Records
---
Amino acid sequence: MEVDKEVFKRMFPNLYREIEEGKYKVTIDSVRTEESYSKELSGYDPDVIDFLRRCDTEEQAEEIIEYMRKRGEISGEYAERLQKQLKEKGIRSFGSKKEDDYYFKLAEKMKKRNS
């Protein structure tokens, strides 16, 4: 889909300005292939972010952070940083919500691509 530069500028003036100024750039230094993704998931052990992405509310997220801190799975310092991010940016700042069967659906997608 191609959009005229002037139309884009009118529709998204701030984004246009940022692109033109070139201040915010992201360097991509690797590409993840399906094979590397499959290997990464093999024996995958979810971390605190994976659990937070399953939460519906900030209260649930706070419980997860505290539970993992008490179990020693995350440090007190990291727990504080997560709580700060949660309060300032909200639950979805950790990523989109992982729905039920997330990994099963992901495996199915990967299987279809490899066929």
---
Amino acid sequence: MELTQFLIKAKTNTYATGGEGGERILVDGSKEFTFEEGGFVYRDRYFGFDPFIGEEVVWQAGEVVWAMNYYGWVVKPMVAAGEVYQFLQKAMWQVETDRPFRGPSHYAEGDFEYHDASQGSVEGFQGKEKILYKGRKVYRLVYHGGLVRSA
């Protein structure tokens, strides 16, 4: 299985499906989603709620091959954070093959709009996402990552 296809499956089968409350709570206070298939293992572990920080890591045959760090927060509390994150889950379902990091470049539903701008490819990338509510920014996230090679 190709890394990009695995990332899409992992992302749509973890946060996009489970959202807040669907993760496992660990002893250190972090929250974690995991997914395994075709020799790959995915882990998304994060701390906090608003703001939050985390990392996604992919292993293949027991070696780390890809990782991403992220930091996000609700910028303006015009709407409940829970509503923002529910909309974010829907955007994460739209993850694209050419950009398997977060959601699509644009997604809208009702009063919410999701925008993601990134540079690079699965090998190395950085980006920013935002959510607008009635045209005003209410959420923001920054991320970066790429391939990891073992010594």
